[in-house]
Amino acid sequence: MSGLFGKTRVGYYSVSLEKMQQCELHQKDIVNIVKGIRGIAPGIGAYKLFLMIKDAHSDKFIGRDKFYNLINRNHLMLKPERRRHTTNSNHNYRKYKNLIKGIVLSRPNQLWVADITYIDTDNGVCYLHLITDAFTHEIIGYTLSDSLIAENTLSALNQAIVQAGNMDSNHVIHHSDRGSQYCCNAYIERLNSIHASISMTEDYKPTDNAIAERVNGIIKQEWLYRMKRPKDLKHAQKIMADIISFYNNRRPHMSNGMLTPVQMRLKFENVK
Question: What pTM was computed for the model?
Fold first, then answer.
């Protein structure tokens, strides 16, 4: 009797066992790769890991759900972090509508996105106030301080206005969350002084300010998570100056056709 599909029963099960062992070896390789990446970037999430490994082993890589199950079984899923709130939207200042849904970007100084994120040091928490040009992805204003007061947020905005220079910032849209730093009188008055349109998130989702969140993630995942924690604010300020200089001038962006943010801006200026 030929057995199952032309094979004897013993032969069929030996082949199945061999495939299972290959699968197990393959899964062990995946686990080791995940551990290796996490050794460099301990905060990188499951979906980014899946894309990174799939890109390198696209021919025979497992599906996303199987990948999630695999790293979960091996206790490699990240535990949800307790989110630190850097802005407080429970205030009496005016809150503005979201003006950027469906926006198509075509030039620098069309849309600026603002956000605040925290930076841990041995001496406590610091706060990075950022303004990013959404078209070039260039960080055009920032302040790293030990306080969330609006004065620091306003300092980042003033840097962005100076950075814009001779370029037309009169029609820029400034987009942020609804934190008190962005809604307070001094900040709104400064935006009005350059005739900026004011846009704010409405649904309290990270995707409502995705570009700003992406910049935060790059700074943390590509630099801060890979290095020793800064000693204090002064040390963190020096590190951040180096990071932002590299980010703006040397790091290529896929969304810019692999140009750096500064190259992207200069390319547009030269066309004009």
Answer: 0.67
